Amino acid sequence: MRTIITALSLAVAVAGASRPAAAQPAEPLPDQPPEPPADQPADPWAAPEAPPPDEAEPLPPRQPEPLGGGFQRPVPRPQREIDLPVMFNAPTGHLLPAGVIMGTIGLDTGGGFSSDARIGLGDVAEFGFGTTDLVGVTECDTPDACGKVDAVQPYGLALFKMGISEDRLFVNQPALSLGFRKSFERNHDGRKTRVAELYLVGSKKLGSMTQIHLGGVFWDAGVRRLGAPDTEEVLLHDGGVSKQLRAFGGIEIEPLPRSKLMLEVLWTPEFRLSTVSSGPDEITLRPMFAWGVRYELAKWGIIESGVRIPDIEDINLLDAQIFGQFKLVSRRFSNFLDGLR
Amino acid sequence: MASCPIELHADGSRGNGLAATGKGSTGREFAARATASRCYHHRVDVGARIANLVRIAAALAVVSASALASADEGDGDGAASTAQVEPAPRRHDATWREIYRGPFQTSRLFAMPTAEVVGAFQISLSGDASLLTEANTLSTSSVLAIGFGDIAQLEYRNAVAVTTRAPDLASDLEGAPFALPTVGVQLKAPYRAPRFVPSTAVALRFGLPHEEQAGAFTHTERATDLYVVGSMRLGGPFERFTLHGGLRVSAASIETEGDPMIEDHEETLFLPAGGWEVQMTDETVLAGELALVPVFEPGSATEPSDIRSGLFGRAGIRWRLLPSIVLDASVGYRIEIARLGSSPSSMASSLVDWDIRVGGEVFVPWGAVACKTIHLFCE
């Protein structure tokens, strides 16, 4: 009860805009006239000076109107830089603009595969699906004697995130987002598991090259033995808030145009399955660290690569993974909607 | 496991759950009460009810439209929310773009009805689906509403509910959602609300009886709701905020046939509901709602039937993709989703029992379309 009220209160706080919000700050149209000099009063209603009659150009031929007021060819929005809603894996406070679709696929040397597809909703929210390879599982003879951690994959997830863009409520206000991500149920290793996370994250640009992201995440997860009707589901929230609440964040530095260096720290759940039939399973959160580069190949394509350490509480470079990701960003649907409107 | 809850949603529809209630109601001279009880089994003439509702709505629409028209003549300002913009033109020569340009008025947040009705000569078809139901099934709900005279709407709801056929929480059995229909009429008070005075609406909904077979018992659950709601747009720095508050009086009953006989249970519940929305952009609204909903718990051989209330909460966005198409996405807590899960302590603080729902609303200006295509219902 307290959680849902807190979440809804956060949503109200995020929504308390006295100005219309947008996922990305609007930029002027490229063909707008230049601003008048500061010592000259601006007159937005002044008509442009007409050329002398003998120099006037003939009017262009009139274009026929579309039949029946039909749909016209979409008029594309002015292209602008999009602040991505995710670093390598950690969410940022930014949202995709309305109608913009982003897809991601990733591979790593640990044999992991991840994918993500999301769409910006009305400049204030995002919705998406994906699979992750960051949920870990290990078998334990005793709580202190666990084996190698493997990835449970694919682990299907759905995402809903809403927020407001930077500088909308007041000057220097960071971009803020409240996100909820939850998995579908997954059967593996004789268990049925599920995870969910609720996070609040802020992103702020510092100067022209740097951006930081900071947030808090509230995790929950459950594991239950299959075919054992007498056992109850083990839930992360049974251990209290201290087992669920964690901080995460990252930093982006753009030393060269279209190239970024990024570092991130985030938390991922790990299922510790007891090998004893009557032994209880456990759920823990492990901190993950990743660093690497992001390069914008084109307006529609981004490639990322780097290194991640799955558990920095127990660093073992042999467990480090090199990963590569490709992001596709499409504005076609957004432009199509603009045309229909 | 003694009882199998069935719940009613804030929108007047019924859902349910599968969890044991844990109310410990055994040992209450149950057998004696059951023997003494009378087992009613009402059969409702649904067709006659719908016909009556249509007549009532049409009559009220005619009367209220005239009242509204007279109010319009003498009132030029105010926070009016009715008939301020030219609706879709009902002319032969109207273009499709003009017809679908709107405006189209929605009458709900996510599940909570607001003090608005669908416009005249318009149909609203809306629905949503949970993506993450623990039973790995897609639970859906939908509403079909027809506007009358900008002051009433007749509606048909098909809302998700969950069967009681999963008798044991500890087993791997999982319930299957089913659709539960209701019919109702909502009327909007025909006045222009001044500033800081809410517009109001009242709705009456008949829950169509639904039969559940649980072992040797056949349970028939139904509820009739009277729902009053007020909506008020704030001013000053909060001019983008609109608040909604409602009270639902639900007369609910569970009637059971079987051997041994279970006493019928009737309950009148007073269920408050609240919601808010913020106009974030021209096309997008951020909204949230919180409500109590009835929860049906049909009895068994060891426990009597019971009806109580539970929590329902959502927050999300409504994005008007086009004037006639709205996309919904929200996150929140729903009782029936939690109870489909296996966690014995399902409650709102259990994040794994929250769900994400995606849906939409499509408006069809049927009057304008009919005028353009078959020259009927023209202005």
What's the structural blueprint in terms of helices and strands?
The complex is a heterodimer of chains A (341) and B (379).
Chain A: H1 2-15, E1 101-108, E2 113-121, E3 125-132, E4 136-142, E5 145-146, E6 150-151, E7 155-164, E8 175-183, E9 186-188, E10 191-206, E11 210-225, E12 234-235, E13 245-256, E14 259-274, E15 282-298, E16 301-309, E17 321-330, H2 332-340
Parallel strand pairs in A: 4-14
Antiparallel strand pairs in A: 1-2, 1-17, 2-3, 3-7, 4-5, 4-6, 7-8, 8-10, 9-10, 10-11, 11-12, 11-13, 13-14, 14-15, 15-16, 16-17
Chain B: E1 6-8, E2 14-16, H1 30-36, H2 46-74, H3 96-99, E3 123-130, E4 140-148, E5 152-162, E6 177-188, E7 199-207, E8 210-214, E9 217-233, E10 241-257, E11 265-279, E12 284-297, E13 306-322, E14 325-333, H4 335-340, E15 354-364, H5 366-374
Antiparallel strand pairs in B: 1-2, 1-12, 3-4, 3-15, 4-5, 5-6, 6-7, 7-9, 8-9, 9-10, 10-11, 11-12, 12-13, 13-14, 14-15
- Main sheet strand line-up of chain B: 3-4-5-6-7-9-10-11-12-13-14-15
Q: What is the succession of H and E elements of chain A? A: HEEEEEEEEEEEEEEEEEH
User: What is the CA-based Rg of chain A, rounded?
Assistant: 25 Å
Describe the largest sheet of chain B.
12 strands, antiparallel, barrel
Helix-strand category of chain A? mainly beta
Structural write-up:
The complex is a heterodimer of chains A (about 350) and B (about 375). Chain A is mostly beta strands. Chain A contains two helices and 17 strands. The two termini of chain A are about 40 Å apart. With about 375 residues, chain B is mainly beta. Helix content of chain B is about 15%, strand content about 40%. Chain B is built from five helices and 15 strands. Chain B has a twelve-stranded antiparallel barrel with strand order 3-4-5-6-7-9-10-11-12-13-14-15. Residues about 1-45, about 65-85, about 165-175 and about 340-345 of chain B have low confidence and may be disordered.
